[in-house]
Amino acid sequence: MCADAGIVLYQGLGEVPPGIRPCVVSIGVFDGVHRGHQALMKTVIEKAGELNATPIVVTFSRHPLAIIAPGSEPPLITTLAQRARVMGEVGIRALVVLEFDDAMRHMSPEEFVRAVLVDGLGCAHVVVGANFRFGHQQAGTIETLTDLGAKFGFGVTIFALQLDRGDEVVSSSLIRQHIADGEMEQVAEELDRPYVLEGTVEHGSNRGHDLGFPTANLAVHEHMILPKLGVYVGWMRWKGRRHPAVVNVGLNPTFGDRDTPIVEAYIIDFDEDLYDETIEIEFTHRLRDELRFTNVDDLVTQMRADVEHARGLLGI
């Protein structure tokens, strides 16, 4: 059990104290905790207020597809810790993390409801999206959930899917596509906040230092989605402070020494030691594609131009 941003995180139903009952619950992966997720969670909070109950979310330690169809699970927009923080900021009071394993995979809809919602949480009400499915082979529908609610004595609210300005349903899948396309402004609109990568600063080749642009090399969890290769503007967040940054997501083609992408941030007007520190990189704008330069002088000239462009975009 741990607490962050006003939310308590419980690893499994066994950690959940009886005092959390009664509760209003929503269930899902909630990767990204995007604008649609947040609106649904506000409905959870409102219903909890009406029932004098605790607003909670149930999620999973890994994407269910990692068990159902290994290798087909999508890359993640947010870590579990990031999801918990955003949920806490919205007003959710507890996040229950279930281990999605083969046993859970084979639960029938009724078995899942009884084990998790009824016996595990004693929930008074459930709020889910209109596309919610659950149980073995996704056999449970919202109609199934409503019938089970009547049987076990909890209410059910079906939340309408949220649309973006183009009348597309705001979804984690859509946001992943925008991230993969480098469309940071669109991502920020759908997340209701800028896109952020979290990781630990590791030692690199020190080539940036030699060029006059020392970079923080970010070790990102292997399951996280990366933006389209290129150069970005944003902020480095560390110890409650934000520092302007130019970020390269790429392969260093000028030097031709990588075959997997790396995230490198040049932090403007900053000279503190970040090695082994956990930092966040907030992406606000995409500047350009990653380029291959024929000589180092041209690379340095471009980097200087990128920094000046970043200063203008960030208003510094």
From the spread of the alpha carbons, the general shape counts as elongated
* Beta-strand residue fraction: 25-35%
Helix content: 25-40%
Strand adjacency order, main sheet:
1-2-5-4-3-6-7
The CATH architecture name of the largest domain reads 3-Layer(aba) Sandwich
Number of domains: 2
| C-alpha-based Rg, rounded | 22 Å
Mind summarizing the main beta sheet? 7 strands, mixed
Q: CATH homologous superfamily of the largest domain?
A: HUPs
End-to-end C-alpha gap: 41 Å
> CATH class of the largest domain, anyone?
Alpha Beta
Strand segment count: 13
Unreliable stretches: none
The succession of helices and strands, N to C, reads: EEEHEHHEHHEHEHHEHEEEEEH
Per DSSP, the total helix count is 10
Care to describe what's here?
The structure is a single chain. The protein is built from ten helices and 13 strands. Helix 1 links the parallel strand 3 (about 25) and strand 4 (about 55-60). By secondary structure, it is α/β, with parallel strands linked by helices. The mean pLDDT is about 95. It has a seven-stranded mixed sheet with strand order 1-2-5-4-3-6-7, sandwiched between helices. A six-stranded antiparallel beta barrel has the order 8-9-12-11-10-13. The protein has two domains: about 1-160, HUPs (Rossmann fold), CATH 3.40.50; about 195-315, Riboflavin kinase-like (Elongation Factor Tu (Ef-tu), domain 3). The radius of gyration is 22 Å and the shape is elongated. The two termini are about 40 Å apart. The protein has helices spanning about 35-50, 65-70, 80-90, 100-105, 110-120, 140-150, 170-180, 185-190, 205-210, 295-315; strands at about 1-5, 5-10, 25, 55-60, 95-100, 125-130, 155-160, 195-200, 215-220, 230-240, 240-250, 260-265, 280-290.
